[in-house]
IclR family transcriptional regulator
Amino acid sequence: MPTLPADTDLDLEPDADGELDAPARSGIQSIEVGFRLLEVLTHTNGPMMLRDLARAAPMNPAKAHRYLVSFARLGLVTQTPEGRYDLGPFALEMGLVSLNRQDPMRRARPAAAALRDEIDHTVGLAVWGNQGPAIVHWEEASHPVTVSLRLGDVMPMLNSATGRVFGAYLPRAQTLPFIQRELERAAAREADPELPRTLEAYDAICAEVRAYGAARIHGGVLPGINAMSLPVFDANAQLCLVLIALGAQSTFDTSWSGPLERRLRLAAQQLSADLGYVAAPA
């Protein structure tokens, strides 16, 4: 682990009293205190009221509010119309940059670009974030489809191919809060009749994803758009990212064992192998 430089290495200037700048030696305590608020928001499942956020920090609400005002000015937090606090756009940007600097992402980006050039469909990559499946990379086709998705957007667990792959391969304890939240929302309103309404129904979908090694969606999240998502595993045989391809229903063939599905499957397998994954013998 790298060590911090000593004061003598920092070429510090004395302050007006002839003392070296203490914060440079020992850090800035107020930053560390305020960071607790960001840490709480990072590990919660959604926006929080000020009193709940302060209690979890733990911190006096008035003090927490002062930190949040500064964080909001920097884009680290944002406030919903209901007055709740959540991570802001700059926090998302930092997270995306960090994810893209990880080794799997560095290897996957050029592979995604090459696959896009070959199949001429939009290709993307998703990872598991603190809010669920997050889109972290897009490679648009020469005939880009009109979609409302942006980098950092979170895909639903129930009716997106990407969410279903994460549901199928990640530990259920990790995904259950997100699945249950969507099931509750589906039960509370008129929803797509093809959506699973129970955990048992979702389990059956996940079993099918594991059986085929891929998930496919016709319409669903994006009307008029077909999508296929496939798992990419690391050297520990753990799901590390999901390979996504999508296109207009008129041109995007989702047939099992069709030419497109076979090419996507090969790309996911090659990427997994590049990351050190060794598949079990068939």
